[in-house]
Amino acid sequence: MRKAYIVTVALFALAFSLASASDPDPLQDFCVALKDYSDSKSAVFVNGKFCKDPKLVKAEDFFFEGLNIAGNTDNKVGSNVTTVNVDTLPGLNTLGISLARIDFAPYGENPPHTHPRGTEILVVVEGTLFVGFVTSNPENRLFTKTLNKGDVFVFPIGLIHFQLNVGKTNAIAISGLSSQNAGVITIADAVFGSNPPINPDVLTKAFQLDKNVVEELQKEFGGDNY
Fold first, then answer.
1. Which DSSP state fits 135?
2. pTM
3. Long-range contacts of 47-55 (CB under 8 A, 24+ apart)
4. Measured between alpha carbons, how far is 19 from 5 in angstroms, rounded to an integer?
5. Mind listing the pLDDT tens digit of every residue in the chain (226 residues)?
6. Burial class of 3 by CB neighbour count within 10 A (0 to 12, 13 to 18, 19+)
7. Residues 152, 157, 158, 160: what is their CA dihedral angle, to the nearest 10 degrees?
């Protein structure tokens, strides 16, 4: 009897863990995120955001303008990401999707990064991009492809990926993500530009670099944090 009880409890625990492994489907038509939390006392907290009273929701809550405007690529990497997520489009709350426009200067790149909470699907609107992603340990297998206008590529959730403009003209891509806020971790910024800085001894051993090189990289990426 005791053995049967333990098995039953284990099965319930397994079922509960599986049920909690992904976000549940919304139980309402929408849950527009509140930008002004002063009204949050009477609001419902869902997916990290307070929901606006449905009676006060307007068409503007589901609207974003300006994605036709090119982002400023005058920076060190030569790219700019214009994100349309729950922070800029409140109607996305609980819907599990977001969008981004990526502009590239000639030979600009969107450097290696990950989205911890979302898969990305990218379509090239203008130009030619060299893209790729790396699988997890221990294989660390690299998948790459050169994309032209109209081509589509998928980057699985959580994996390190990149996009590089290999053309002599500007390039544009549009990405869809499977999260209202997929998050982004740019590898170089996170490792060498953390706040506070990671102990150089850790990075020296991890990357098999001279300590002076590590400290120079931390100064480059860390700025005022170093």
1. P
2. 0.83
3. 47/23, 47/86, 47/93, 47/94, 47/180, 48/181, 49/86, 49/90, 49/93, 51/93, 52/90, 54/28, 54/29, 54/30
4. 21
5. 555 544 444 434 434 444 444 455 677 889 999 876 555 555 565 666 888 889 999 999 999 999 999 999 999 999 999 999 999 999 999 999 999 999 999 999 999 999 999 999 999 999 999 999 999 999 999 999 999 999 999 999 999 999 999 999 999 999 999 999 999 999 999 999 999 999 999 999 999 999 999 999 999 998 666 5
6. exposed
7. -10
Structure tokens at 92: 């996305």
Estimate to the nearest angstrom the gap between the alpha carbon of 168 and the chain centroid.
Answer: 27
